Amino acid sequence: MASAASRMDAFALIAPVFIPATIGGAGYAAYKINWAETIKSFLRGPGRTRRILVLLFVFFNWKNLPFAWTFRVFYSIIHHALIRKAPSLGPRALFKPMISTTRAPLLEIDYNLHKSNSTFFTDLDVSRSHLVTYLFRPALRKLTYNQQSRLVLDPKTGEPMKGPLAILLGAVQCSFKREVAPFRAYELWSRLLCWDRKWLYIVTHFVPKGTAKPTEWLDPSYRGVRVRSGQDASGGWERKIIATAISKYVFKVGRFTVHPALMLDDAGMLPERPGGWMSGEDQVGDESADVGDVNLAVEGEWDWRRIEAQRRKGMELADKFQGLEDAHGLFDGGNQGALRRTWPG
């Protein structure tokens, strides 16, 4: 979502004109086409075998075609921000997962005849875009027009910060456990893990399609979809998980870093907290507050103590993830020599 969301300000301006014009143009072109003759020529005309094979290849590998990644990412943003605007679900939705389904087409298969590890990251781009746009839509819109909304102010002058909205990907770490066979369907369950003064952390689990089913859906438009019956919806999945990834995002207005808690609060995801969510030495609230008695294994009211307990639990893992930053210091610039240059790269 890094590159796509950084252009949301421009997209918000052109979308009201671009989308209707595109749909209208496509509809008029479709109206003018003689579909019966076109289909007949396609299926029966000279070279039909090659055309049908090419069509089947495109159909089963569309997600790897040129500009398909761009379409998938921008569609997630357009869908949740403009077409079917995400509802405001409140603090209870803060740590709930967004589920997306896809497959491993032929062009993602490596020489081991399963999904290449490198292709997991394009799926993550799309899954994170769905989650962040869905949760933060009101705040993202305000940041897009920060001069008018005054959501983020310059701490020195008190005036609105200037510059375009950007949501930048800082790092991704993915741990692989099981392979994905060709054309097999799988799901990505992405949810908020935690946040600190700078970073928003997201955890994503890859699982085979149909492996897990939620006990409820929070989105009102999805209430009619079947849910999982039973008391425990979290046991035994470690034997089926394909991979798990952690990503971190930073919100920017121009070059100014926006506190993730400010975004969460403006999106209606945080309840009131004594002293606020951006107080304290590390600007993540009063860390001396005791929340050890909160039982996260039992569903309860999502007040500030429960949310803070969940955030701290996530930070235990995020702190280890942040330790990878020290690896940058291992680069010596060739002071100890090198092997050689290779081609192709």
TrEMBL record:
Pfam family, one: 4HBT_2
Domain of life: Eukaryota
Regions crossing the membrane: 12-31, 52-75
Record key words, sorted: Membrane, Transmembrane, Transmembrane helix
Family: Belongs to the lcsJ thioesterase family.
Protein's recorded name: Thioesterase-like protein
Species of origin: Hapsidospora chrysogenum (strain ATCC 11550 / CBS 779.69 / DSM 880 / IAM 14645 / JCM 23072 / IMI 49137)
